[in-house]
Design goal:
Shape: flat
Helix content: 25-40%
CATH topology of the largest domain: Rossmann fold
CATH architecture of the largest domain: 3-Layer(aba) Sandwich
Low-confidence stretches: 13-23, 369-382
Mean pLDDT: 86
Largest sheet: 6 strands, mixed
Radius of gyration: 24 Å
Oligomer: single chain
Number of helices: 14
Strand order of the largest sheet: 1-13-14-12-16-15
Distance between the termini: 48 Å
Strand content: 25-35%
């Protein structure tokens, strides 16, 4: 037990304290910003164009991570304020004349600087992007057809690999569909919810979550169902479905469906992860753990909760850790967000909280069993 406590204390000393948010380079960047300015000289036109482009890029980022009304409530920013938030900028397609400057900009902003600006103005925002998701595009040519995944004639997989739409809030990974992928997972295993096989594939690509995106064609109608395969993804991305009609051709239809999935994922993440961080509260929680691995499970789930700004170790004794957790908004939402991530936070008679992790489950199979039990249940009981 002494060895366990020593290892655990070392783990906590490294892992607790103020949480560093992920880099989120894509979430806090904007590309394709076109500038075209005419001034007295080319130098002045360039200077003005870069200032204008940086401001427009910042507004793109703000619109991505904040509610619609935030832009109107922000104080007017001068060029020096904005350039101090710029982390990197690339310029392409430059064209100049004696009085005119044109170019296309890609601007990346320092995430902490942007967050500080919003927090100082008391405005809500999305703090971090989602975890890397592995997309599994299962396709059926008709409702009665067998599902395909890696087949060369899977147009749904091709559409994902050739997608033009970018995902900024929820990073996506699309498998190549090569022989190595085929040896780890097939369409039938996906349909049956073989989480172990799917996680082997996710590990190959460094993805943290798995999302099945199944398309079924029925003549000129296409239905799409997005389903989380693991409970970690399910806690953050609820299942969703939509249908669409054949566009000018099938390739355009598949591209449109990909865009709708990406937009839905971005919208869900923005809606559910929006937090107002201007008021921070704290609570003391007792965490029963007997191994370092158990603590790592709790820690990983805590780190996915947007409301939690930091947590610190206060004491440790055999089998129990005492944490102080700092969080935004209110206790009700904190408990709700914890429940989504399979953590329970209950208050003890002493007024101290108890924090526990629920056992890991196969999300798809649990959902299937629940649906089956409801089907078999008498209508009155349902």
């Amino acid at each position: 037990m002494k060895v366990f406590l020593t290892m655990l204390l070392f783990s906590l000393s490294v892992a607790t304290g103020v949480r560093a948010a992920p880099a989120d380079s894509k979430m806090f960047s904007a590309s394709g910003i076109k500038v075209d300015v005419t001034a007295e000289t080319a130098a002045k036109a360039r200077e003005q164009a870069l200032q204008d482009g940086q401001k427009r890029a910042l507004m793109v980022v703000m619109e991505r991570i904040t509610p619609d009304y935030v832009i109107e409530q922000l104080t007017e920013l001068v060029p020096d304020d904005i350039i101090n938030m710029v982390q990197a900028m690339s310029v392409s397609n430059e064209k100049t004349s004696s009085v005119r400057y044109m170019a296309t900009l890609e601007v990346s902003f320092n995430a902490d600087s942007v967050r500080d600006l919003l927090r100082q103005n008391g405005l809500p925002y999305v703090r971090t992007s989602g975890k890397q998701l592995l997309i599994l595009p299962v396709y059926k040519r008709s409702p009665a057809a067998s599902p395909v995944l890696w087949d060369e004639d899977n147009p749904w997989l091709r559409a994902w690999n050739n997608r033009a739409v970018e995902s900024y809030m929820v990073p996506l990974t699309i498998p190549a569909g090569d022989l190595a992928d085929n040896s780890l997972l097939n369409a039938e295993q996906v349909v049956q919810g073989d989480l172990k096989a799917a996680e082997s594939l996710a590990k190959r690509y460094g993805a943290e979550g798995i999302l099945i995106v199944k398309m079924v064609r029925n003549g000129s109608r296409f239905s799409v169902d997005a389903m989380a395969m693991d409970e970690g993804t399910a806690s953050e991305i609820p299942n969703f479905s939509f249908t669409l009609s054949l566009a000018k051709n099938t390739a355009a239809t598949y591209a449109k469906a990909v865009k709708k999935v990406v937009e839905r994922l971005e919208s869900i993440w923005k809606r559910d992860q929006m937090v107002q961080y201007n008021n921070i509260e704290s609570l003391v929680a007792m965490v029963p753990v007997s191994t370092v691995k158990q603590w790592e499970v709790v820690q990983k789930r805590l780190d996915r909760i947007p409301l939690i700004s930091s947590y610190n170790l206060q004491a440790a004794r055999a089998g129990v850790l005492q944490l102080t957790i700092f969080f935004a908004e209110n206790l009700d939402r904190l408990q709700s967000e914890m429940a989504k991530r399979m953590l329970s936070l209950t208050v003890l008679p002493s007024g101290v909280f108890k924090l526990q992790a629920a056992e890991r489950v196969n999300y798809l199979r649990s959902a299937a069993k629940l649906a089956e039990s409801k089907t078999m249940m008498p209508a009155a009981a349902q």
